[in-house]
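Usage example:
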Amino acid sequence: MTDSRPPDISELPEHLLESVSLLSKKWHPAVIRCLSDADGLGFSDLEERLADISAKVLNDALAELQEYQIIERREIAQSPLRVSYTLTERGEELDAIIGSLADWGETHLAKPETEQVVLVADDNDRISTMHTAWLEDEYTVRTARDGEEALRHLDTDIGVVVLDRRMPGLSGGEVLDWIRSQRYDIRVVMVTSEEPTPDVLDMAFDEYLTKPVLKGELKAAVADLFERREYSAQLQEYLSLRSKQAIFEVMNSSETHAEAAEYEQLQNRIEALEVTSDDIADAEPETLERISLEVEQ
Amino acid sequence: MLFVGTPPVDIEKALRASSSRPMTVAVVGNGREAIQWLSKAGETTTVRSRPDLIVLQFGFRSPDGKTLLVAIKSSPYLRTVPVVVLTTDDADTKAVYEYDGNARVAAPSSREDYGKLVQSIGQFWFKWVRYPPECLFAEET
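Running the assembly step on the lines above writes:
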């Protein structure tokens, strides 16, 4: 008996390996998907839809897909030359498989959305209940009736705190100082019934809302702050300072000397951050609009 | 070391007797002052102001001992700092460990015993206990 060799370990048929390797190329499935819901696209249409692709890479991908007869190139005008790419029959079959693969990935590979937790701290029962109710649809909300309860609820699961500035016992400012000094990665929206005073500039909140806070206003601020947690520390600080600057600008304009000095200090801190317009471009347009900031060129 | 509560003896003096190493002791009377003190200590970017040991003598208010313990043990900055709880009430014992306190010690009633206890606490946490060479809290940069 000579046939004592172990069976070939690669039992995968050659053509399976070939099709998997074809699909594993970064842009091939994307090109196929693009063509699947169009009656033929030109080179520049594809370039536009696949925003990050370079002309050379697209050219190579199209050439290879044609070689495999997955797509078809047709000249629809001679002068100037216009070309249109469409899926062939076998291309359409492959597109269906890619669709199933995408569904499978979504079901089994997509990361579960992490729970977003908000802490609402307000000593006014009516307000804390109302704010909690507004946010409960979208977030897991913890409610605290004073600063001490807020301390008991604080942990690293919390992403955003809606903090009343004036509370008996530990004040909102003290809770805010605690959050910052303990290195919590938490964005804070300070809520207050008073008009802002210059001393708010010393507080390290990210946003400031004046009571009565409207439902849409609160929801927008919280959503925005969850978004901002993803930004760089530099951009976060920049947005927080600009937000303060915006408060300053709406404050009663009977500007005292002290206020002017504070404002100048704020301006210096903003400049010291050396944020470029490229950095700012990372932020959501809604965020910039909220703090009435337009991207300066 | 940070001591929170109203000690019947001079904590600093008692600790000196247990260690030859220079030691800074801060004593604050209530929970609010403790929160303010710790916030201030955490404000700086150097970890030198981070306490090496916190002793809570239960009985203070606003916030109370358990709240302060929870706040310290939930804090990313302070959670690895050992916290010793001194209390006369045995009913607190379970809560101390449940809230991740490092030790609950019965507070003696006589001043003399109290002084000796503080000395022993200092000896244990600053002389016998071993820590890694680097600080347990690493600042992310």
